[in-house]
Amino acid sequence: MAKSFEEAAETGAPNARVGRVRWVIVALLFAATAINYVDRQMIGLLKPTLQDEFGWTETTYADIVFYFQLAYAIGYIVFGNVVDRVGARLGYSVAFIVWTAAHMLHGAVSSVFGFAAVRAMLGIGESGNFPAGLKAVTEWFPKKERAFATGLFNAGANVGAIITPLIVPALTIAYGWRGAFVITGAVSLIWLVAWIAIYRRPRESKRLSAAELAYIESDPADPAHKVPWIRLIGRKETWAFAIGKFLTDPVWWMFLFWLPDFLVKRHGLDLKTFGPPLVVIYVVSDVGSIVGGWFSSRLIHRGWTINAARKTTMLICALCVTPIFFAQYVDNLWVAVAIISLATAAHQAWSANLYTLPSDMFPRKAVGSVIGIGGTAGAVGGMIFSLYIGQVLERVGSYQLIFIVAGVVYLLALGIIHLLSPRLDHADVADA
């Protein structure tokens, strides 16, 4: 006989009869994130092609990236609040429609203004991916599994980054870069149909067993009241997450939008040859995302506090990024790929844990809003870093100053997070 709700909740651990419906939800989030990153990364992959066709300078390209990040910053905080109000199912659907339409419209523009406009629209839509996805994880997983679940669906970012250099060069050669945007956007609409058909909140799902629902709800109940967005701004726990995003998100943006350019300029690769190095880098990143989420979850299962497990994992990640200092000086392509792979894997492992902090410290009804605030901070940091990258490449022509910043910000971010939230205590938003 299946366990009762109460018995399953008391054990706080899954068994063979609990069920695995929640992992289907993770699979959907994984697929959406992969699509999100295909759409996001394509302009970075096509940067040399577009620069040759339109005569863009380094600062012109940086400006186009800047407008994407500006819109992403605005959209992130908006979608964080929207998702808390309307739920993950509707919020994700709206975001997906907006970003897919924007992605396909890339095939219709030719001017710098046109690219800036469609990138801005893409930024608005794509900003809904993580607030909605993390809201879904918060609804479908107890705290002990959230970092692992987040790591799994966040791994979709790397799969998207792997798929892009495998399919986009072939599509570009066969149909032109405009056709590549339209085709990839049209195919991705399959996901939207699946999401609308499958996703429900746990208590609304007919696929979920009583035991699995009890396991999902095994954490103490959250306060029933909604938390006003403005109240969250005053909490130091919010700023711990937001500053962590502000300092470290820009490094990931840099890899997405400039890594193909680095391989072209430093190692002489092109559209036909930088695919294999990029695939290796993002396969290793995928492993980092999953292992980073698994590791802190494993420590918690072994009796570590959430605070110790998350911060120990994040410290290891921060230390693993620091060798990026040397990437500019390495002549051997595959040694450089190994250094970059370690850094990108460490970032993804870091991100899996950083993204889990809001659900560790805030009630479910506030998670989307806190993630929105942090995502906006990360996008603002990315905007600043993009302008910095454009200026450095225009004036210096080397990535060394860029990699120095990338190598130190994780340790700085972890120090600030610990200072603002020494124990990752639950934020007292009721009396804030």
UniProtKB/TrEMBL annotation:
InterPro entries: MFS, MFS_dom, MFS_Na/Anion_cotransporter, MFS_trans_sf. The chain crosses the membrane at residues 20-38, 59-79, 152-174, 180-199, 239-259, 279-296, 308-327, 333-355, 367-389, 401-420. GO terms for molecular function: hexuronate transmembrane transporter activity. The keyword Transmembrane helix applies. Residues 25-425 form the Major facilitator superfamily (MFS) profile domain. GO terms for cellular component: membrane. It is a multi-pass membrane protein. It holds the Pfam family MFS_1. Keywords: Membrane, Transmembrane, Transmembrane helix. It is found in: Membrane. The keyword Transmembrane applies. It comes from the Bacteria. This is MFS transporter.
